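To whoever is on call:

I kicked off a structure prediction for a single chain this morning and the downstream step that reads the tokens threw a length-mismatch warning. I double-checked the sequence; it's 677 residues and nothing unusual in it as far as I can see. Pasting both halves so you can look.
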Amino acid sequence: MDIYGQIKRKEPIAKGWSGDQKYCVTAEDGTKYLLRISPLEQYERKKNEFERIQCAAALGIPMCLPVEFGTCKEGIYSLQSWIDGADAEKIVPTLSDTEQYVYGLEAGRILRQIHSVPVPKPQEDWEIRFNRKLDRKIKTYEACPIKYESGQAFIDYINTNRNLLKDRPQCYQHGDYHIGNMMIDRNGKLQIIDFDRSDVGDPWEEFNRIVWCAQKTPLFASGLVNGYFNGEVPLKFWQLLALYISSNTLSSVAWAIPFGQREIDTMLKQAKDVLLWYDNMRTPVPTWYFKGYYLQSVDGIPYKLKASFDFSFLSKYGRIFKVLDDQDSGNICFGLEKDGARYFVKFAGAPTEQYDGNPKDAILRLKAAVPVYQTLRHPNLIEFIKAEDIQNGFACVFKWADGECMGRMYPASRQRFMAMRTDTKLNVFRDILSFFEYIAVSGYVAIDFYDGSIMYDFENGRTTICDIDFFRKQPCINDMGRMWGSSRFMSPEEFEHGATLDEITNVYTIGALAFALFSDYSRTREAWTLRDELYQIAFKAVSDDRNKRQQSIRQFIEEWEANMGGSGQEPTCFCGHDCSRCLTYLATVNNSDELRRQSQQFYKDTFGHDIPLTEIHCLGGRSDDIFYLCRDCPWRKCAKEKRLSACSDCAEYPCKPLAEYQARWVNKCNQMGGTNR
């Protein structure tokens, strides 16, 4: 089969450090492949590499499957199956603690499988081979003009522990095994990529890249180790790993010098982190290591507890499709489906991992919340169905509500939320104000209400309020000292034993929510994204002095609405470019491949940039997740240095270079309905 000869479209892939040329290619039948091109002189090495990949694939390892190998006019080519998914290093850190750890466990199990690939024999003795490598790296570091602070600690550890290399086994190695060489496919499955550095060596040496994992997500790194050793990690592994990491770190700064200051700074920081984890190489077990959770699984979904608990009783509500276990309230929550209907079940009584109290107290608190849900019925409030004692615990059953939480404990969802059109966020805020006015009229005080209590359904444009368990009926007195809740949203009286908690208390909560929605939580004018009049209203609401706040939710609403004016600004770049009409932005927030293709074609036609679809990504010019071509934007850099929310806030606006740029480009290209689409 000559698939290479049937390729009709090539899209270059610029990511990674491999010397190979990489492409996403499409054959005549529409099938996508990963194409790698290498120099002809590497034929034997690349042939052996391809054969080793075939052996790995035969074991069922989730990876780019080898398809075809041969020569072409550019050199040597290898074709592998294409993985449709996202980079694990971007996705995994945004997931729950449990999900991060579980993906790490899977990565560890996969690595153990990779290490079972047979290797040709005989091999040079590992002790001899690696000692030669160590000597070379020490010599390179000593000759390097840049040194680490306390860098001698690495050399001392190596020289003290060389004996650990004696009689070490050797196996097939991936060669660059870390989270940056992993993907999460469309089905949520972990996939391993980039086997081009495969080698033979000590299986434990393969873990030397775990530094990159630990910096991104310590839970994933811990899972990687625990999954490989099935939870029984020998001390000798840690001792050897510290040696291998010391070796890698020594040579990293010299490697970085040709690539410039950015890479040098990266390696300096990494060395600093390593020395901190290992207490200047005085202890072999790094501080990021976590021995792991007690995990159970229901309907194929893992979750963590402190001890075993039987949830088989949940089958009466349906099949579980979601578990929410990262809660410190003593509750664990489930999404269930039965006969086409979906339910949300909140259960108290199980030994949840993040709760240090008595499960019986959690049961009493959840029971006390039932009258709140029975009484309050608002269009934006999650719909309560029933509550019941069950399986030595207590369950509240609600109608399931689709949506993503806007709280910062869910960074990916919050980032997506903050990138929405300003008028959409204003509508969400109106929903919240409507709810708060309703509870005021109903005689309730919102206790423990924060941005994590708000969900937004991006597909249907619906706001849902949930988790109101601690709401209290007025009159209400602080009987705890520090009340339940997130301190960012709590008024001073919620920290004062005996203080009155009332509607004025909730005015503070509303003001704090405004800063969560239209700022970066800070209460500075610079971070505020709406007009100044609205800033003043929100700032008044969060006054420590109760008497200086609006005295009711209704008063806040009236002041807010009276000063709305033209506040429904669209998301914009620092330069003034209208993000809400930008193809790249719209493709991202709507997850539309069709819009991505349109944006891709624009950049190809206008600038000659052949950009892979995976790089067509931006959450707005003033977000932290922007299109890669805009990362070095001079207007963005200038505004941030001056601590401005936009160039238009500058006293010199518009400066001559910006005026010329605006005249040529701003709102004139890559726009839905624009002139240069």
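Update from on-call: the warning came from a stale cache, not from the record. Cleared it. Sanity check on the structure: Residues 673-677 have pLDDT under 50 and may be disordered.
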